[in-house]
């Protein structure tokens, strides 16, 4: 019908990985953006904290300085580290809140690696009714549960927000069991495994899974 033609694509706020930037993540998700064209668009932005000591690779163009969402110890981050004094998460949540308000409206989140871990925390707050984060769902690629005791509050109860968890069986950065553990923190998570490593996969089976999951939502539902 005529109504369906008018429907805007879903808009997803994209949270990049540790040592990346919004621009770098935008470049790296070209295949994904093409796969989702007409159905969803991605808007990446920068994490608030600069990471000391250069980028994940020197891309030769002087690139953006590498950024992170929080640190497990001063100026550094390890997903496996049970940080006693993690730093920077409040600023990261504020950055997401501001991006949702200033760049929105958004329907959901797409997070990669540390960005997926942060997106899961946002989902937890949203599921408990936090009005700062008007999102209806999230796609979490290579996510993990923060090991920091200070972050335990996010996982105390199952997170009742729809999520798609993308898990790389050969991921050497965030091992598959860590991403599976995060999926178990959610109510009725959809889990998509792929044989690859630490990247956002866009092969035919993954493209179908993304579109199937996104097909459950309509633009404007989260508002």
UniProtKB/TrEMBL annotation:
Gene Ontology CC terms, in alphabetical order: cytoplasm; nucleus
The keyword Hydrolase appears for this protein: yes
One family name in Pfam for this protein: FSH1
Record Gene3D superfamilies: alpha/beta hydrolase (3.40.50.1820)
Gene Ontology terms: biological process: response to retinoic acid
Location of the Serine hydrolase domain: 9-209
Protein EC: 3.1.1.1
Function: Exhibits ester hydrolase activity with a strong preference for long-chain alkyl ester substrates and high selectivity against a variety of short, branched, and substituted esters. Is able to hydrolyze ester bonds within a wide range of p-nitrophenyl derivatives (C2-C14) in vitro, with a strong preference toward substrates of >8 carbons.
PANTHER family for this protein: ESTERASE OVCA2
Family: Belongs to the LovG family.
Protein name per the record: Esterase OVCA2
Gene assigned in the entry: Ovca2
């Amino acid at each position: 019908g005529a109504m369906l033609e008018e429907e805007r694509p879903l808009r997803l706020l994209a949270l990049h990985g540790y040592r990346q930037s919004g621009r770098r993540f935008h470049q790296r998700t070209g295949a994904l953006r093409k796969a989702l064209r007409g159905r969803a668009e991605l808007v990446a932005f920068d994490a608030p904290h600069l990471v000391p000591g250069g980028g994940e690779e020197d891309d030769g163009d002087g690139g953006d300085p590498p950024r992170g969402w929080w640190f497990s110890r001063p100026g550094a981050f390890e997903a496996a580290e049970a940080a006693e004094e993690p730093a920077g998460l409040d600023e990261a949540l504020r950055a997401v809140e501001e991006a949702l308000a200033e760049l929105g409206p958004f329907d959901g989140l797409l997070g990669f690696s540390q960005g997926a871990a942060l997106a899961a925390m946002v989902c937890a707050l949203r599921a408990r009714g936090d009005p700062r984060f008007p999102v209806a769902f999230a796609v979490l690629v290579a996510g993990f549960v923060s090991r920091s005791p200070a972050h335990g509050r996010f996982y105390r109860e199952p997170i009742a927000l729809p999520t798609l968890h993308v898990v790389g069986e050969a991921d050497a950065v965030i091992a598959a069991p860590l991403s599976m553990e995060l999926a178990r923190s959610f109510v009725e998570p959809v889990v998509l495994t792929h044989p690859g490593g630490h990247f956002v996969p866009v092969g035919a089976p993954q493209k179908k899974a993304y579109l199937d999951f996104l097909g459950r939502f309509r633009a404007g539902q989260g508002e």
